[in-house]
Amino acid sequence: MTIKINFNTHLENLKNQDAEVYDAVISEIKRQENTLELIPSENIVTSAVMETQGSVLTNKYSEGYPGKRYYGGNEFIDKTETLAIDRAKKLFRADHANVQPLSGAIMNIAAYFAILETGDTILGMDLGHGGHLTHGHPITHMAKVFNFVGYKTETDKDGIIDYDKLEAQAIECKPKLLLAGFSAYTKTLDWKRFKEIADKVGAITMADVSHIGGLIAANVLENPLDFGFDIMTTTTHKTLRGPRGGLILCKEKYAKAIDKSIFPGLQGGPLEHVIAAKAVAFKEADTPEFVEYQKQVLKNSFAMAKGLMDNGVTLVTNGTENHMCLLDLRPQDIKGKLVEKVLDDLGICTNKNSIPDDTASPLNPNGLRIGVPVITTRGLNETDCNLIGKLIAQVITNIENESIHKQVAEEVAVLCKQYPLYVE
Ligand code: DSN
């Protein structure tokens, strides 16, 4: 299951031409090799994805869509983009796929503009309860264009979404779009109930599954499209383990509007080297090995959650049902920024994160978010992940104890050596 990344880490041309960038890239290779990367939105792509993204396809302008381009010489680009589209449709059982979104934010914004008018209401998950900036945070430009209303999780009931309350909220605010999805939430969503609520109030349904796209592709988590969702967006670089970018899937009814919204509505020339790498990643995702990988992601995540909780750390939602854990640091009276820094110095990379109804600033919140996609790609198993949970708990409960920190750093170094990432 482990993937060995066997690309040329010597980078001879870069070395001879630009020592500063070369040094930074080599340092990053070493950092990745010597770090337990626990940021849940990251992953490690295969050599084939990396090679495709680094290919000559980066040299081509291809505004438009396959067969309808504004530039000549696109016969091979059409082939790779069509492969990406067809593979994405098959993987997610979708009528239509747009593989051109440059990023997750653009992908969501394009979907809004495809189906909504200025001032329309979108009911989405509150950022403070695990939603995403693009789901309507007041700081974003989109909040000036659309009327975002946020639903919250039940902090006293293990962080569930109270669907009766959500229904009442939807009846009250009459959204044109009901948006399901998250960037820091550890429970599964009830897609069926979301759809029933949307149907009751006449709303379009959209799921942003960026974090769990790979788990859905492997059918280890349920696919909202199977429950009749109109639109589903996902980034391609998280659990889906492809190059950085976005993907929009939708019912045929919205296909033209989505395509028009991406180009010419929002974007210019697509990144065809990235789109070809998406095609490669989608083919990889359609294999038994990928299904095994995603099953292992869940096993590892559950093992890490147990290691944390058994050793005195509180988790928001009291556990996890996906690839990540959200740690509530209030019992230890320490902040996410400090824990992120201390762990970073020991070779464990995480990210500070707000917890529901956090009273502290998002720059120094009361929580920490961790996840297992990268270390699972690297080959670590449940025993290792349970140990990592325990090590993190030891650091959190002994935040000033340098001798414990030293022991943890040694254990991290052993794990990184045991599971090498890059072959060369
Ligand atoms: N930045 C992504 C994440 O880390 O969840 C979401 O955009």
Average of pLDDT: 96
**What about the largest sheet?**
7 strands, mixed
CATH structural architecture of the largest domain: 3-Layer(aba) Sandwich
Coarse morphology: globular
- Proportion of helical residues: 40-55%
Strand order of the largest sheet: 4-10-9-8-7-5-6
- Radius of gyration equals 22 Å
The number of distinct structural domains comes to 2
Count helical runs.
16
Summary keywords:
16 helices, 4-stranded antiparallel beta sheet, 424 residues, Aspartate Aminotransferase, domain 1, 45% helix, single chain, 7-stranded mixed beta sheet, binds D-serine, Aspartate Aminotransferase, domain 2, alpha/beta
SSE layout:
Blueprint: H1 12-17, H2 19-33, E1 36-37, H3 47-53, E2 64-65, E3 68-69, H4 75-92, E4 96-98, H5 104-115, E5 121-125, H6 142-145, E6 147-151, H7 163-173, E7 177-181, H8 191-201, E8 204-208, H9 213-217, E9 231-235, E10 246-250, H10 252-266, H11 272-285, H12 288-310, E11 314-315, E12 324-328, H13 336-345, E13 348-349, E14 351-353, E15 367-371, H14 373-377, H15 382-397, H16 402-418
Parallel strand pairs: 1-13, 5-6, 5-7, 7-8, 8-9
Antiparallel strand pairs: 2-3, 4-10, 9-10, 11-12, 12-15, 14-15
Helix pairs in contact: 3-11, 4-11, 5-10, 7-8, 12-15, 15-16
Structure, explained:
- This protein is an alpha/beta fold and 424 residues long.
- The protein has 2 domains: 230 residues, Type I PLP-dependent aspartate aminotransferase-like (Major domain) (Aspartate Aminotransferase, domain 2, 3-Layer(aba) Sandwich), CATH 3.40.640; 131 residues, Aspartate Aminotransferase, domain 1 (Alpha-Beta Complex).
- 45% of the residues lie in helices and 13% in strands.
- It contains 16 helices and 15 strands.
- The strands form 4 sheets. A 7-stranded mixed sheet has the order 4-10-9-8-7-5-6, with helices on both faces.
- It binds D-serine.
- The site of D-serine has 4 residues, from loops.
- D-serine binds next to loops.
